[in-house]
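Prompt: Have a read of the protein record below and flag anything odd:
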Amino acid sequence: MKVGLFGGTFNPVHAAHLRVAFEVVNRFLLDRIIFIPSAKPPHKTGAKIVSPEHRLKMVNLAIEKVDKFFVSDVEIKRPGFSYTIDTVLYFKEIFSKETELYLVIGLDAFLEIDTWMLYKTLFDHITFIVMTRPETEIKNRISLRLLEQYIKEKISKDYKYFKNKFCFLHVEKTPVYFIDVTRIDISSTKIRKILQIGESVKFLMPEKVEDYIKFKGLYK
């Protein structure tokens, strides 16, 4: 079985989250992708984030009846900061050894991974799928060069890029794939701003999530 782990604050979850997850599932032939709302993200201590319970509920509403989409409250149940290494080791324990686990992450977040707790250990345990946004050919080359430089400097100089596989491989550590996903100019920050001025977010997120936000009076 092939399982993707897709973490984030999801504050709130929106259409772009759902679309990129759908594309990753199809490109990598995943059996499931698990959305994992963080309880207390260590990198966003100053951000205004609604309660984990609200964000978990919104993800549940967004993905219900979507094939291969699942949600986990593992980080919400765990006390303290939500560290990815703890989550990865948890899923490695509950799934069989035959299960292939993938950590699904955006390029911007990946380029800050050296600030994460025990980040090098992640590359001993889980394959990465790094999502990038399609740009011009020149910008794509710059992104690849930036990614390669970062991987060699921060993780291991022995990673090598294989163009035919769109992947960085290492003889001992896990692969790092990167894929272009559909560029959708939607962010949780933008949605919160729209909600704060009382405008509609119709079609930016599932209708049930929008209704929940209105009913609970979130993001005012």
User: Anything to note?
Assistant: Residues 39 and 76 are 5 Å apart (CA to CA). The longest strand covers residues 2-8. Residues 137-154 form the longest helix (18 residues).
